[in-house]
Structure formats: C-alpha cells, structure tokens
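for the writeup, i need someone to sanity check this before i put it in the appendix. the sequnce is what the collaborator sent (i think, or maybe the updated version? ugh). structure was predicted straight from it, no edits. if anything looks off just tell me and ill rerun, i have time this weekend
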Amino acid sequence: MSKRLRTVAAATLGLLLILVIPNTGSADDLEATIPMETGGRLRIQLPSGRIEIDSHDESSVELNGRSSGRFRFEVDESEDEIFVHGRSDGFLGWFSGKVSIHVRVPTRFSLDLETGGGRIDIEDIHGDVRAHTSGGRIGLEQTRAMWTSRPLAAGSRPRRLTAT
C-alpha cells in the first residue's frame, strides 16, 4: 500500500472513531440550592435527557444535574424564575452523553419543561405546568396543575400522559 493511501486510510479511521465512539470526557454536573419563594417559576430546556421534579417545604430550589458525557448545564436566575438549559461540548454538538436532572421546588410552583428526548416525571406540584418531550413519557403524580403542552408537529405521535 502506498504512503499516500496509508495516510488517507489512517485519517479516515481517525474521523470514524471521533464520529462513532462517544466522547466520555469531563462533564459539568450541576449541584445548587437557590433561594426562591413559593409561586416562582422553573424553566428547563434540554436537548435531551430525563427531567424529574418534586416538591419540598423549603423556600428554595435544589438542582441536581448529571451527565455522563460532555454536557454543560447553565443556570440563569431572576427574582421569581430559574432557567436551566444546557449544551453539548461534544463533536459538532453531538455525544452529550446521558443527561438527567432532578429538581426540588416549593409545592406551589410553576413549571415549563422541555427535553428533546427523555422522560419527564412531576410529583406533588400545585401550579401551572407546561411539559414537552420529543421521546419519552410524561408522568404526573399527586399534582394539581393547569396543564398545557405544545401542539404536536406533523407526523409526530402523542406522548402518553400518566397522572395518579
């Protein structure tokens, strides 16, 4: 095999390894407690991943986010709203790894949740709730809420809503 052909083959193999093997580099996990009174609003917008929300009797929001890959959580806060979003630092924005976030909020709180693919579970919340997932189920347990969901795009199938 000629030197030029070996160089092209090695470069092609290297590129395939970058595209096929997920990058398991460092992740920025999220652990924070933010003071927030009852009646506030939590917005979460993730490109993928599981979202779990439950309540507690504290005047704070506890955030615990985990990622197995190159994913960076970002948090913006105002007086009555917390916005959690994130992005992948992987190759071309891919390979964010497995992403999940668990949040504890005051019982009377509003939620605006969106994930590009993953399950959303909401427990013991009393407030306005908007949730959307492109892949996964949405479960509500012991939740009294005014529920809204984004209209489905053409060709997409509805997500199952479970309420107990």
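The helical segments are 3-20. The longest strand covers residues 60-67.
thx in advance!!
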